[in-house]
Structures are given as C-alpha cells and as structure tokens.
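Subject: sequence -> structure tokens, single chain

Hey, anyone have a minute? Need the predicted structure for the following. Not urgent.
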Amino acid sequence: MRIRNARPDEARTLSALMLRSKAHWGYDAAFLAACRDELTLAADELAARRVVVAEDARSGELLGVASLEGEAPDGTLGLLFVEPGLIGRGIGRTLYAHLLDTARAAGFTRLTIHSDPHAVGFYRALGARPVPGGGPLPLLQVELPARAGWLRAWTGGRRAVHLGNVAEFQAQFGPVSPAGLRAAGHYACLAALIGPHPAAVVLPRPVPAGWIGLLARQLAWEQVEMYDDVGDGRPGGGDLDGRVGGRDAVSGGISSEGSVNRSADRTGDRSGDHFATLAAGVLARPALAARLRGLGVPFVAWGHTAASAELSGTPLPPGALRHESKRASHALFTALAPAHPDITVPAQWHVPGRAAAARRIVVRALSGAGSVVKTEHGVGGSGTRVITSPRHLVPALRGLPAGPLLVEEYLTDTTSPGDPTYDGVVDAAGGVHTVGVGAMDVRGTAYQGVTVGPGAVPDRVETAARTFGEAVGRELAANGYRGWYDVDFVAAPGGRLAPTEINLRLTGPSVAFMTKARLDETRGGAHVVRSVDQIPLGARLPDAELMDWLDDLTVRCTRIGVTLLPTIPTAAFERSPWVGVLLAARTFVVLDRAEELVRTASRDLGGMFTDPR
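Reply:
Had a minute. Here:
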C-alpha cells in the first residue's frame, strides 16, 4: 500500500467509498441519505482539505481516504474511511499515522476529531482523548508534541533506507568466526527497526515472506521495499528485478510479495561467509544501488563501513571509530571519570596473550578479587569471560584468541535489577542528543535484551548515566564520529556506575528506543518496551508455519494490550531454534504478563508434535 494526495478526478469514487464505509456500521437508508451531502467530496476542494488516499501499490485500487484540515497550530482530522471489506487490516491506522506525521511537519500541535460513535475506540487506542460536551458526535483531541531532537538528528525525521550490515561492521576489526557470521546474519534482522519508518530494508539473510508486513501492520508503516539475501555479489544473488531475494511492498496489512529467486533454501545450511559484505553487495549491483539512492531518503547503516559510506555519501574521518575498541574506550572513561562522582572506572591491564592473562587472574583470584578477560573488540558479550575463582580459569580462557587480551577488575552490585545502557546520537554538526537510558538483561557476560521507558531505571541511575554518556558523546564528536552510539555500564558497589564499553553503531537497545518513539507518536502516551533477543522454541518451524504462529501470538498479545514485534524471525529452523521479539505496553505489569505468555507459547510448541497416545 502507498499513500498519496487525492486527484480531482477521484472525487466521485472517494465519495462512494466513504458512503459504503459509513454503511458498514449498520445505519439505515434514511440516515445514510442524510449523510450523503456531508460525505460528498468536490473535485476543487481536495487540495485545500489535504485529502490523501491509500491505494494498492500494484493494482491502484483505492483502499481508504483521509484528510487533514485547518491551519496550524490547531487542526482537524476531517475524514478517515476505509473500504468496508478491508476494515481491521491496519489501513485506517496507517492513514491516521500518516496524517499525524503530516501534521507535525506542518506545525500542528493539536488535532480535533468529530468521531462516529463506532470509531471512538479506534481513536482512543491510538492516543486520542475524549473532550466533554462534544455535541451530537463524540469529540476527541490528540496532542502532537514536537518530535524528539534525537529523531530529527538521526534521519531528519524522515524515512530512510536501513542496511543490516552487522557482520560487515564487525569484520573491520578482525576476523569473524563462521559461528559469529551466522549469528550476525540473524541479528541483522533488527535493522528493520533502526529508524521509525523505513522506506527500504536491506538484509544479508533470506527472511520469511510476510514478516515485514507484520511489522508494518503493528507500526503503521506505509510502503516498505524489502531486499533480502543480499551478499557479496556472487552468482545467484541477482540484481534489481526481484532476484535479489524478496521484495515486499507493504503497509497496513496489505502485502505484495515480489518475485523471488533465492540463492539458497531458507531452511538449508548456510556457511554465512557472505554476510560480512552487505553494503558492498549492494554496490556490486548497480541497479539496486541506483534504486535505493533514487528513493531520495537518507541511508542508515547498522554500523559505519567504507562500503556504507560510499553508498550513503557520508564518510567518516580516519580514526573516528577508534573508541569501538574496549581499550580505547577505557582510556576515555578514565580521563572523564574525575568530573563525575557517580562514576567509577574498573582497573584494566593489557596483556599479550592467554598465559599472561592467566597469571594476572590467578594472582587476583588468590587475593579474593574477580576479573573480567576481554578481547579488544566483540559484540553482545562475545570474547568476554568473568572469572571469580582459579578453578574457573581454564574453561573461561578456552576459546579466547591467543591475544592480545584485556584483563579488567570485576565490579558488581548484586542488588541492581539490571545493567544500565545510555544511547545517544551525534548529529552532522557534532551536537550530542540523548536518546535514553535503559536496563539491560545480562546473563553472565551475554546480553539478552533491554527494557526502556518510564521507570525502567531509577532516576538517580538515569541522571548519572545520561550525564556521563553526554560527556562521552562530546569527546566522540571532537574525534570526528557522527551517528548513533551507546555507553554500557555495570552497577558497581556503593551505588556508582562502572562504564565498560562504547558501541559506535546500532545495538539491541537502540531498536527498543526507536520502536518506543514510533509507538508513542502513532498511538500516544508513553510506552514501556522490552526486547528479548533469544526465546528458545519448542520445535523447529519452517517459514510458513512460523508466520502463522507469530500472527496468532500477535493477536493474543493485542488482546491484553501489548504490541508484539518479531524482531529476529530467521533462526526458527536452526538445530536449536529460537526467535527474537520486542514487546510494548503501557505498564510493567502488562509487559511482564506478555513476556510470560510468549515464553510459555514458545515452550508449548513442542506439544504440537507430540503423539497424543
């Protein structure tokens, strides 16, 4: 589906659509006749009333109509009608979100809605609030606060092309193992959510047909182009004519699947070697690169690489990524910490290899001190081990590279409910914008997910993390870095925070913050959002069965007031199958209930294949 301005020659057709939509609610002929004049559009008034239509991107069939009327700052949502047979498929929600985006851009701060009584629940669910004394029709209003500064800094408040170049970014800092490449191929799916409203999504791995449509229905996205299975340009990858994997044009539940000629079976085994060349793979397909550039929107990559810079035209100066190194970030933390009394920096030692690391760790363990051993680069806890006893030494060091390594003082506060993470954006001029502070779920050293939103972390912790995170951002900006970054902390004894690393790229928490912003804008209020990156499944599910299960689970979550988004749908047929999800609600009580619902449903999948005898 796409949304565009209505044409004068469509006035009669749109008038008939509105009357049919009104009749959907069971009004009698006399009432409909009385509404006819009000529901008749004249060709010469469409532009002044800012009338837009939703149409099928392939057939051109008109699916709905809406209007934004009046002059800023106060306006009116004048019309919102959907073809009766398509009501309930998300078209109305997407038209509504489009009008809110248009209104913000035009300087409106409030919209009034004279609602049909049957539509009040729809508008209230999207953030509109009743106004007493509305007259013969229910009167509602929706407030339109200014878009957050970090959102304007990120993409200018516009749609963007999203590049899931997770492995490509990691490969800049050293070899990535086959298992790491495979994991990065799954994790890249999160790139669909690294902006509030993508124009196109480019991913290295084939994704299930219909997945991007499910996200679109939940987040009120208009047409999104999907290009998956984009690798290094080897034979079979194809070019723009649909052979580059699937291409879905989707919105509001309307999905047109493009022709597909995949280079590998979705459920088959993939070596993963070409996942490290996503942006380079786009550049190797001139027609695809031209198509994406021709959309006229910004590019946002998971992480900056030479290829993504060439594609987007936004290079970084040499050395701008240096603080992705845990050694360099520790040096920056040490320099900044004296000005921040709530921050403590763990001691860190640079050692040439495993033997030297072992000697230092043993000495520390014998004195009762725990240690963390790290590789200089690594994501999601990879290359990191915690050692609190000499007997843990051998298994902890097994699997680490020969060196060099970092040994760090182990700090922890067992009373803390989660480890804080600060996210920010450095804009093109070097200005720093805070996105927020969330509470990470870290098991051992492995990142599991995050919760963001009001109350996710105590006020004192949020203030300390934000103040220090902004100071880090200013130093990154002075070093030439531009884009998204985060600072991860652990809770240290005495109520202080210990910064552990800087990520100069998108992360799991950034996806949660981005989704919260989209839901807050399109549905109103302040959401709490939780991402859970890996939920084990009780059975291996091929794509079609997975999407049926996810559709059903989405409906079950909606019934308890929760938005469910499947963030990683590509691992459901692995030997140990799993999915990633994101949950959004208004309260933590409902959020916890939804997580338990999802985990129980995931475990129960195995029962579908159990012999009842």
